[in-house]
Amino acid sequence: MKKMLALAVAVLVITATVNLLTVQSGNSSDLSDTNLIIASEHAWAQAAVKGDASTMAGFMADDYVEIAIETKSGKSKWVTTDKATWIGLVRSGREKYTSVEINNFKTYLHGDVATITAEYSQTGIVDGKDISGSGFYIDTWVKKNAKWQLVSSVFP
């Protein structure tokens, strides 16, 4: 009876150790993915300030979409901008950023999908109109072929 009890305890200890190591290695991977995505967020923002449309485009999936709320005449509506349009505006110089600051990140990993919430402050113009402002945003990243790509940004 004592041998059976000792064997059962040994099996439980081994199982718990294996589970702990599995969880820890998963957390390590999550941490490196989180760090990579946040570094990418910063690099993407700085590429916009530098007017480097090619670098910006490199972070974005081909089907990227920006979703922003527009409030005019007391009515609110969602406005979308696709990757080609935004990159075209930056590449042509019609959209220019003097500064973009991002901070207070929260990262939510769901396998190969990551949701980032953060705060931003920017100064810039598009077609001569001031687009300076600050607020919150939500970015969604998807890991495709071992590379994280930005698929959407929401500016509520």
Our Rg estimate from Cα atoms comes to 22 Å
**SS elements, strand count:** 7
CATH topology: Nuclear Transport Factor 2, Chain: A
| Helical coverage, percent range | 40-55%
Hey, roughly how much beta strand do the residues contain?
A: over 45%
* Major sheet characteristics: 7 strands, mixed
Q: What is the CATH class name?
A: Alpha Beta
**Class computed from helices, strands and strand pairing:** alpha+beta
Topology of helices and strands:
Elements: H1 2-50, H2 53-59, E1 60-72, E2 75-82, H3 83-92, E3 95-110, E4 113-126, E5 129-130, E6 133-144, E7 147-155
Parallel strand pairs: 1-7
Antiparallel strand pairs: 1-2, 3-4, 4-5, 4-6, 6-7
Structural account:
This protein has one domain (2-155): Nuclear Transport Factor 2, Chain: A (Roll). It is 42% helix and 47% strand. The protein has three helices and seven strands, in the order H-H-E-E-H-E-E-E-E-E. It has helices at residues 2-50, 53-59, 83-92, and strands at residues 60-72, 75-82, 95-110, 113-126, 129-130, 133-144, 147-155. Strands 1, 2, 3, 4, 5, 6 and 7 form a seven-stranded mixed sheet that branches. The N and C termini lie far apart (65 Å).
What is shown here, in short?
The protein has helices at 2-50, 53-59, 83-92, and strands at 60-72, 75-82, 95-110, 113-126, 129-130, 133-144, 147-155. With 156 residues, the chain is α+β, with helices and mostly antiparallel strands.
Please name the defining characteristics of this protein.
alpha+beta, 156 residues, single chain, Nuclear Transport Factor 2, Chain: A
